[in-house]
């Protein structure tokens, strides 16, 4: 074996020919890509390895292929049952002896696997089953099952444990965004298997997280894979940018009905009979979206549903149907997809969440290297729903502002935005986004912002509008009122100009309606469309001119707009100073010009070949023009019912905590894509037998009594939760 200064990327080794032959015969892959060859070589050489490759980059091959050539079995620790199931299906198709042990594994299979491991430990061979080459387990299994660990130690003592692979290894670190406590227990591995090489795999692992990971797993410091000394953990990294993925932010319609129509049209016109994933925000939404897309397309869109509550048998059948192309579009929560290996996913549709989520989920598209769309549906009102979710996360505000900045940005290349964001949030080097062809901060040339037609946006000075919005907000708050983003936008445009203030009179909650004199308060109404004002408020929020004011009620987290730290800079100005251009601050933003149309983005994409290389021809444009109409100004000013008894507030749903986790599956917040609930009443006290429809997605049913003696009975009526109030 070469000693010191080994170049795992380019040198030829004893195993090189065997490795390549197996790659072709078993995996049907002709060429290594990215750093795969180096990782396989370091793997064959028994080194500890950290490998950072983008989602869909081909990490699995780097341990599965060497596993076939090495003696004994490779243990893979992986967080998702769905991921393992998918891997096992693939491996078995390729006639590789692969097994998994999870809570979903049938008892008979578990027993058989344990027997086979015992046979390995005792060096007994069983010609009918063959030697296990890969065994997949969850981190929970490793941390909690002592007898399993003891059995693995016996396998190791028999020199039959070839390697330990930790997939999604960034979950080890509390500094990362996906920390899982069972991963932390993996520090045991080096202690109980001191001589078994460890390989840590991840798609997003910044410097801080990597340092933590090295220390927790007991690895040596990292060394380069192109000049590797005999000691040290070999670090391999690949560019995180995948040029066949075309990112776009698409305006989301007001109602979920219209949104479904938009998705249906998009799929039928651009990806008829192609494979895609729609990430929904709750388990219920996955079912609704799947059913309605199927119905509205008259069966042309073949949908399936995946979330943590779907039983294992149904999941398995869905996987099989998806792989066989009987199901084309999977409507899923985040429980689906991490590691799902289907090459021809042509589109992934998302709802506003986090940038990490958007990047990771997008990674499930285009694994075969061909052009694929990653679409984020967004409207400014989402900011309120997302803020309600972010309120529960310590880093929530930064993440919220990052995704809002991303969605509101009409000019910066999406690739550059990702590079800048991840270099700050995860300390991933900006250079991780450069490729052999383009630098990290070069524009990709094919995202929505790169293909936006010249002249379709305009940069407007919004200083006066910002000042007016501030004055309106301050005036309403001085009266004890609070405004949501939509209500502020509606008020600022004039119209009825009324808002409600709730006050407590003794034991009673009373509501008073105030009118606002915009001439007196803000020297006039804001001269912009309602949608543009909403966009402006979101942008002013991320610039801290406004801030989120949270109010938790029994049913929901309400988010209001309040003056932020930066507002002071504009507070003392007057309309005259701003109009004269002598204000000390200036707020300028880009807006879509009214009537502008988005370019046919597919036509503008550099067409990529199977290997992901750009080809000379361009793709014929088959998608319809998408009109981005900034002047959606047809909503009546009294849309926000000032006579409603809640002061016109939009009651934002408490995000459904859709604990969409299988054993070992990630959990995340999710919130409904159903229509924002109409303004509705707070329960008045105490009113005999009053029925009040609550449209926010409550998941639990309950019966309880308030300390005022009001009985609250929450019942389910079809899709809607009904709250019955009655007094004793
Ligand atoms: N060298 C290659 N050439 C062509 N296809 C490849 C190559 N290597 C892997 N693939 C294919 O790329 C797809 C993605 O691979 P894989 O699932 O290993 O990605 P991954 O890096 O593990 O992604 P994730 O982070 O999402 O788990 C698979 O379909 C795989 O067969």
Strand count, sense and closure of the main sheet?
8 strands, parallel
Q: What strand line-up does the widest sheet have? A: 3-4-2-5-6-1-8-7
Separate helix tally: 25
What amount of the residues lies in strands?
15-25%
Low-confidence spans: pLDDT under 50, at least 5 residues? 599-728
User: Which molecules are bound besides the chains?
Assistant: adenosine-5'-triphosphate
The value of Rg in angstroms is 28 Å
How many strand segments? 26
Termini gap: 84 Å
The secondary-structure class comes to alpha/beta
Helix content: 25-40%
- What would the principal axes of the Cα set say about the shape? elongated
Average pLDDT reading: 79
Domain Helicase C-terminal: 262-411
EC number: 5.6.2.4
Keywords: ATP-binding, DNA-binding, Helicase, Hydrolase, Isomerase, Metal-binding, Nucleotide-binding, Nucleus
Domain Helicase ATP-binding: 40-223
Task: Explain how this protein is built.
- One of its GO terms (cellular component) is nucleus.
- The strands form 7 sheets. This protein has an 8-stranded parallel β-sheet, with helices on both faces. Strands 9-14-13-10-12-11 form a 6-stranded parallel β-sheet.
- α19 packs across α20.
- By secondary structure, it is α/β, with parallel strands linked by helices.
- It is elongated.
- The structure holds adenosine-5'-triphosphate.
- Residues 29, 31-33, 36, 53, 55-61, 203, 339, 341, 343, 363, 367 line the site of adenosine-5'-triphosphate (ATP).
């Amino acid at each position: 074996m070469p000693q010191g200064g080994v170049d795992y990327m380019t040198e030829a080794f004893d195993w090189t020919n065997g490795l390549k032959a197996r790659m072709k015969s078993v995996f049907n892959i002709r060429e290594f890509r990215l750093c795969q060859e180096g990782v396989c070589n370091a793997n064959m050489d028994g080194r500890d390895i950290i490998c950072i490759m983008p989602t869909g980059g081909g990490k699995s091959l780097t341990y599965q292929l060497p596993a076939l050539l090495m003696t004994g079995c490779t243990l893979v620790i992986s967080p998702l049952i769905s991921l393992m199931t998918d891997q096992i299906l693939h491996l078995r198709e390729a006639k590789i002896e692969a097994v998994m042990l999870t809570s979903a594994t049938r008892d008979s299979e578990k027993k058989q696997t344990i027997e086979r491991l015992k046979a390995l430990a005792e060096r007994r061979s069983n010609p009918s089953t063959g030697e296990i080459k890969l065994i997949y387990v969850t981190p929970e299994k490793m941390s909690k099952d002592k007898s399993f660990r003891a059995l693995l130690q016996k396998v190791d003592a028999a020199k039959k444990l070839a390697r330990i692979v930790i997939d999604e290894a960034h979950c080890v670190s509390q500094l990362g965004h996906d920390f899982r406590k069972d991963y932390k227990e993996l520090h045991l591995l080096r202690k109980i298997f001191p001589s078994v090489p460890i390989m840590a795999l991840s798609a997003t692992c910044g410097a801080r997280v990597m340092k933590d990971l090295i220390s927790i797993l007991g690895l040596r410091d990292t060394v380069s894979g192109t000049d590797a000394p005999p000691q040290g953990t070999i670090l391999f990294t690949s560019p995180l940018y995948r040029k066949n993925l075309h990112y776009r932010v698409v305006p989301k319609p007001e109602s979920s009905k219209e949104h479904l129509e938009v998705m249906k049209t998009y799929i039928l016109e651009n990806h008829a009979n192609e494979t895609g994933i729609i990430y929904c925000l709750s388990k219920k939404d996955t079912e609704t979206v799947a059913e309605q897309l199927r119905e509205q397309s008259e069966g042309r869109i073949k949908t399936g549903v995946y979330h943590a509550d779907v039983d294992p048998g149904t999941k398995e059948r869905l996987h099989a149907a998806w792989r066989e192309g009987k199901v084309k579009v999977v409507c899923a929560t985040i429980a689906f997809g991490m590691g799902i290996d289907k090459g021809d996913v042509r589109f992934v549709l998302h709802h506003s969440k986090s940038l990490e989520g958007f990047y990771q989920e997008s990674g499930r598209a285009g694994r075969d290297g061909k052009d694929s769309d990653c679409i984020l549906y967004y409207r400014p009102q989402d900011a309120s729903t997302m803020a309600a979710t972010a309120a529960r996360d310590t880093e929530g505000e930064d993440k919220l502002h990052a995704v809002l900045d991303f969605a509101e940005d009409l000019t910066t290349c999406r690739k550059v935005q990702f590079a800048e964001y991840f270099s700050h949030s995860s300390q991933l080097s900006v250079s991780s986004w450069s490729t052999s062809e383009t630098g990290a901060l070069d524009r990709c040339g094919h995202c929505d912002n790169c293909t936006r037609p010249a002249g379709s946006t305009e940069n407007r000075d919004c200083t006066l509008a910002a000042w007016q919005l501030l004055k309106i907000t301050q005036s309403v708050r001085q009266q004890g009122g609070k405004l949501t983003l939509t209500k502020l936008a509606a008020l600022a445009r004039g119209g009825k100009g009324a808002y409600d203030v709730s006050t407590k009179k003794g034991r009673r909650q009373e509501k008073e309606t105030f009118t606002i004199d915009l001439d007196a308060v803000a020297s006039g109404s804001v001269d912009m469309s309602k949608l543009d004002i909403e966009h402006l408020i979101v942008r002013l929020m991320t610039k801290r001119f406004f801030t989120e004011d949270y109010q938790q009620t029994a049913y929901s987290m309400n988010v209001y707009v309040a003056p932020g730290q930066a507002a002071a800079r504009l507070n003392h100005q007057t309309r005259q100073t701003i109009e004269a251009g002598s204000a000390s601050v200036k707020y300028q933003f880009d807006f879509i010009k009214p009537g502008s149309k988005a370019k046919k983005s597919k036509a503008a994409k550099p067409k990529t070949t199977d290997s992901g290389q750009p080809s000379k021809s361009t793709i014929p444009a088959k998608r319809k023009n998408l009109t981005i109409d900034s002047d959606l100004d047809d909503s009546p000013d009294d849309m926000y019912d000032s006579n409603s008894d809640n002061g016109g507030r939009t009651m934002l749903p408490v995000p459904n905590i859709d604990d969409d986790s299988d054993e070992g599956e990630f959990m995340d917040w999710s919130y409904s894509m159903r229509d924002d609930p109409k303004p509705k009443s707070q329960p008045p006290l105490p009113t005999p037998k009053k029925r009040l429809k609550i449209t926010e997605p409550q998941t639990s049913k309950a019966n309880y009594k308030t300390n005022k003696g009001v009985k609250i009975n929450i019942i389910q009526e079809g899709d809607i939760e009904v709250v019955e109030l009655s007094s004793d």
